[in-house]
Amino acid sequence: MRRHDDESFASERDAAPADDHVTSFVFNAHQSLNLAAQRERLPIRQYRDQILYCLEHYQTLVLVGETGSGKSTQVPQ
């Protein structure tokens, strides 16, 4: 029986990059627009009135949406 911490996994472990610096690319097709115009184009914007209604009338609200839709940046504002 093989154990997961034996030397058979050493090559996978050693092949990983040694530094913790990871770069990522974020594409913003609307970067030429001012910040207010960019906010208007977020997917969450079209639900603004419904979200405000629910916040006013219900004690608890669970909001679900795609990453980058504006849930955590626009709803609190």
UniProtKB/TrEMBL annotation:
Query: What InterPro entries does the database record attribute to this sequence?
Result: P-loop_NTPase
Specify the superkingdom. Answer: Eukaryota
Its cellular-component GO annotations read: catalytic step 2 spliceosome
Q: Name one GO molecular function term.
A: helicase activity
- PANTHER family from the xrefs? ATP-DEPENDENT RNA HELICASE, ATP-DEPENDENT RNA HELICASE DHX35-RELATED
* Protein name listed in UniProt: Helicase ATP-binding domain-containing protein
